[in-house]
Amino acid sequence: MKSPKLKILHxxxxxxxxxxxxxxxxxxxxxQKDPAKQVALFSVITHTNNTLHxxxxxxVIEGKFISGWDLRFSxxxxxxSVFKRFDVLHFHTLNIQLLLLGKLSRKKIVFTEHxxxxxxxxxxSTKNFIRKKIIGYPLLRTIPHNLIFVSEWLQKxxxxxxxxxxxxxxxxxxxxxxxxxxQRPQKHVFEILFVGRLVKIKRIDWCIQALKLVNMPDKFxxxxxxxxxxxxxxxxxxxxxxxxxTFCFHGFSNNVGKLYNSxxxxxxxxxGESFGMTILEAVHHGxxxxxxxxxxxxxxxxxxFHPMLCVSSVEALAQSLDYWQQNPRxxxxxxxxxxxxxxxxxxxxxxxxxxxxxxxxxxE
Length: 364
Known about the structure:
The chain is of the alpha/beta class and 364 residues long. The chain contains 15 helices and 13 strands. About 2% of the residues have low confidence.
């Protein structure tokens, strides 16, 4: 007689589709390949366009909640009936009402903290502080049977105090180097890439200011990929400080892989990154990444490879760029070593295997 399938429900927001949603989707898709599992996504808030990023083979159940405190009883009744059909409720978003509903369902509850509880996110409004720190912490301390953090840095930052805390790093599917790294012609310009949302905490202005300080500005070219509220300010900063042919704003792109393959190094000056999926994507394409000493999870990923890949200021970033522009062979060698080591540790298979242990652990 066949054992019943383990039914896993990932609970998230699809009001937007970014790094977190992409990681969860990849995790669910790989879990679904196991015939002993049944996997679905439960979207608390959904934007129709964002479901286009999800394979048709993966079921998406829409909660149809509104942002904030949704008072419609029918929505919670429907959610409860969905929760009862699954064995594991895997939360990826702090929704207080649904977390309490999950407890009532008497199912196993796993909560993965992707960074929404970081101190910076708690302090950006009084409402967030109350929801996350005053109400959220006590619930996360007691309701989830397992509380997962995506980096050691994030676990130390948040300090919830759940007795069953674990760190499970995000991962990606690593392809062979031959597929990702086509032969490139010799170039006379050292090309730099930033990929991410254009917001203050990402400190993209460091990239622009550093290029003003390098020894030979005309030997560098900066590519900025992404959209966000800081785009106009950053464009003005670049226009006022750099020559027109030394920078390019690409906007949002569905083909970042082509840019990864064409540049020499990726720069991510973000402060307090929870993990750093962009680092894995860059290294996947054979590129080394420069981060900052206060980059949080990003710093954890990169700091052991070379001191010139971890900078503390705009001036230090300029010195790092000058160094790597003069030492391209060493940079390529380090990028290969980064790929070899990260592919071992940060794979989607490792994620699936570690979550399988969590799902299978007994709970009371």
